[in-house]
Write a structure and sequence with these properties.
58% of the residues lie in helices and 16% in strands. The strands form two sheets. Strands 2-1-5-4-3 form a five-stranded antiparallel sheet, with helices on both faces. β9 and β10 form a beta hairpin. Keywords: Coiled coil, Kinase, Membrane, Transferase, Transmembrane, Transmembrane helix, Two-component regulatory system.
Length: 462
């Protein structure tokens, strides 16, 4: 069935052009045959009718009463011989016969046929029924040997002789006419009829083809658009699935990181404030404070140690809290967020940070603002701790809903492969950005380090 697959692979217009062309050719051939046949019949019949009328007007007055006479008398036969053998009628007629309804030839130019009886053929039967019969063909009847010997088509006419008062056909006049020029007329009529049928069929087919090709182009364009949309939807579906898997992985990593954050905070509290408070608690139970005989100076010195330990514990607790609690940034712009983080970093580290901010985008979601705050905060801390705070720069750009924030320094750089998966700084930033559908990138080397985050933010309120 390879031909069927190849056929189905063609366009609708191509299928119509091939199938419609074949059907149109077949229809043109059939209609042409029918029209040509009808035209030939009409031409032959009209030509025969004209000749029959002329012959009938000349010959009929010479015939006796065929209702009462069974044989043609000698006078009538002689009159027919003289009439049919001379003048224009004699030149046109090849032969002439007078038939009786029983198949007997009452008169003929070929005297050998007179009195002979032949079976009535279909043409004679139709003529005796009262109809004029005209044919343009080579004679093939048994009695037409002389006409057949000519080897060319003749105008063969059977004209009924009607009784005047009853209208009954009492005899039939059969005559053959040379019909010069009729063959050319028929050929010309055939050519014109075939040309007209071909022209009409061609115009009809071309008009339909134009409509079909136009519709096919529209269908093909719609099909291509549909395929493109299906392709785009498939790509979006695949992308959504990828984002869903990415979000699931990010959520799992964020959960693990939260546990790590909690352990880190617990370790910071245990190693810092808890140690100072434990030290102060132990000094409260010292003999210098319990014993009433302790000198005031020694007691005051011990209390100073306790107050110092508690003060250091409070300072460390405040530092931990300041890193955990965010300021009110939900209604702040990117410019305000970046400047607030940079100012806090300058105050804490006493280093210089260059800021470049270009903002003309729409209002960002709160989650995105928090992400920007944490990103700049953590990146500056890493630049200070690992790069020495050399030529720190923060560049933030927001255009048409796309946000790009980059923090760079000119320190010695580091090897990204040495960053542990359990590291809270960079890993935490990456997971936070991934969870929002953004991208995180690090470029580091001897010339310094640049950390970049880019993403298309969600609408505010999402």
């Amino acid at each position: 069935m390879n031909w069927l697959r190849r056929w189905n692979a063609r366009s609708l217009a191509s299928q119509f052009f091939i199938a419609g062309g074949l059907v149109s050719i077949a229809a043109m051939f059939l209609v042409g045959l029918l029209v040509t046949h009808l035209i030939e019949e009409a031409v032959i019949h009209n030509s025969g009718a004209a000749t029959a009328l002329y012959v009938d007007s000349v010959v009929a007055p010479l015939l006796p009463d065929m209702q009462t006479e069974s044989l043609l008398d000698e006078g009538s036969a002689q009159a027919l011989d003289e009439t049919l053998g001379q003048g224009a009628l004699g030149r046109r007629l090849v032969s002439f016969r007078l038939w009786r309804n029983d198949g007997t030839i009452l008169y003929s130019k070929d005297k050998e046929l007179v009195g002979q009886k032949f079976p009535l053929n279909a043409k004679l039967q139709k003529a005796f029924a009262g109809s004029l019969v005209a044919r343009y063909e080579i004679a093939d009847d048994p009695e037409s040997g002389a006409e057949r010997a000519l080897g060319k088509p003749l105008m063969e006419i059977y004209n009924p002789v009607l009784q005047p008062w009853s209208g009954q056909a009492v005899a039939v006049l059969e005559f053959y006419e040379t019909a010069e020029g009729l063959g050319d007329s028929l050929a010309h009529a055939r050519l014109q009829s075939w040309g007209a049928v071909a022209a009409l069929t061609g115009i009809f087919f071309l008009v339909l083809s134009a409509l079909v090709f136009r519709g096919s182009r529209t269908i093909e364009a719609q099909r291509r658009d549909l395929k493109e949309r299906v392709k785009e939807l498939s790509e979006l579906l695949a992308e959504n699935r990828g984002l869903q898997r990415r979000l699931q992985r990010a959520s799992q990593r964020v959960a693990a990181l939260n546990e790590t954050y909690l352990r880190s905070i617990g370790a910071d509290l245990h190693d810092g404030p808890a140690q100072h408070i434990a030290y102060a608690s132990l000094r409260l139970d010292s003999d210098l404070l319990i014993n009433a005989s302790t000198e005031p100076e020694a007691r005051e010195k011990e209390l100073a140690w306790i107050r110092s330990s508690l003060a250091e514990a409070m300072t460390e607790i405040r530092n931990i809290c300041s890193g955990l609690v965010l300021p009110q940034i939900e209604k702040s712009s990117i410019t305000e967020i970046v400047l607030r983080v940079v100012e806090a970093h300058r105050h804490k580290t006493e280093t210089v940070v260059e800021t470049i901010i270009d903002e003309d985008g729409p209002e960002l979601a709160a989650a995105v603002k928090i992400c920007i705050y944490r990103f700049v905060q953590e990146a500056l801390n890493n630049a200070y701790r690992h790069g020495g705070g050399v030529q720190q720069t923060v560049k933030a750009v927001s255009h048409n809903g796309h946000v790009c924030v980059a923090v760079s320094d000119r320190g010695d750089g580091f090897d990204p492969t040495e960053v542990r998966p359990t590291s809270l700084g960079l890993v935490g930033l990456r997971e936070r950005i991934d969870s929002l559908g953004g991208s995180f990138d690090i470029e580091t080397g001897e010339g310094g380090t640049t950390v970049t985050m880019t993403f298309e933010p969600m609408e505010a309120g999402d």
